Each structure stands twice: as C-alpha cells, then as structure tokens.
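Go through this one:
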Amino acid sequence: MNAELDTSQLLAVAAALGWASGLRLYAVLFLTGLAGHFGWVPLPAGLQLLQHPVMLGASGTMLFVEFFADKIPGLDSVWDAVHTVVRIPAGAALAAAVFGGDHQAWAMAAALMGGTLAATSHVAKATTRAAANTSPEPFSNLGLSLLGDGLVPLMLWLAWAHPLVFGVLLVLAVAAMWLLTAWLFRFLRALWRRFVRPRDGSAVA
C-alpha cells in the first residue's frame, strides 16, 4: 500500500472518490490530478495517471462543460441520464486504483464500495434534479448545482486531511441520500401517474 497513507486514509480516499464521482466525476478527476501534480497530496500509484498534463487537460475540459450543463434545467437531467453508464463504473475504478494491483483483495473491496457509493450519490443527484425541474423557477436548480460544486472538493479534502471526520459525514450523507431518493421517487411517480398516464378515473397513489 502507499507508504505515505495508512489504511484508514486509503479507505477514506477510496470512499470519497467513489461517492464524489456520482456527483461530479470530472471534478473528481481534475481536482485529484491537480492536487497530485502540485504535490498537495501524495497520490497512490494507481491514481498518478490523473496528474499527467494530458489527463488534466481532458478532465479540465470536461469539468468546464459539465459545470455549465449542470446548471441548465432539462439539460442537467439529460446529462445525468447519459452519465449513468459512466459515473458508477468510474467511481468503482477510481476507488480500486487507490490500492493498486498489488493488493487485489483490497482493490476489489474498494471497487465494490466505490461503485455502490457512486450509484447512491448519482441516483440521489439525478432524482433530486429531476424533481427540481418540475418547478418553473430556475433558482432551486442553480442552488442544487452550486451545492454540488462546493460539496465535492470539501469531501475530497476531508478524506485526505481528516478521514475520520469524513467517514462520519459520509455515513450521514449516504443515509440522507437514501431517504431523499425514496421520498422523491414517490413524488415523481405520483406526477407521472397524474400528468403522463391516460386519465382513467383511477385514484392517484
């Protein structure tokens, strides 16, 4: 394992990369690579590719595109739908890369954790933004997007600097996301039945 990070730090970083990838994958790639490039954090060997200038250019470009796409009502949901097949496996791959190929058991466990956390945050984000898009005013959508812009770097920093604090906040965040997703799913299903399905006189659930 990385000589400069203990197991608890590596697990925190793997969890942070997985969870944050479900919200802002390109921000995760760019910020992690940038931190490694400037020596702000010691990147594990499996993540050092992210600090290559070519990779920084690519992830920075996609971060720029996503920053604006995520703030346009309607387009944000399309962007989320397209990235369903990108964020979750990427979160799993990034979490596994924290431990590298020399520690396959840890890497596999990290991949499962990272993929699950990425799926949790992605579904919560996509569901929340879809619900926000049902409102005619644009401010809730913009506010949620800006919240994600700030939350991702904060959680990544906490994972490196204060892994135990990050762990507590992650548990709370995941629990809140599960509850919010369940509630919003019922809300969106009710809207679907009310406005999309042919009216047949049946009661709305």
Remarks:
- Residues 23 and 147 are 11 Å apart (CA to CA).
- The helical segments are 7-37, 53-69, 75-82, 84-97, 104-132, 139-161, 163-195.
- Residues 7-177 form one domain.
- The chain has a mean pLDDT of 87.
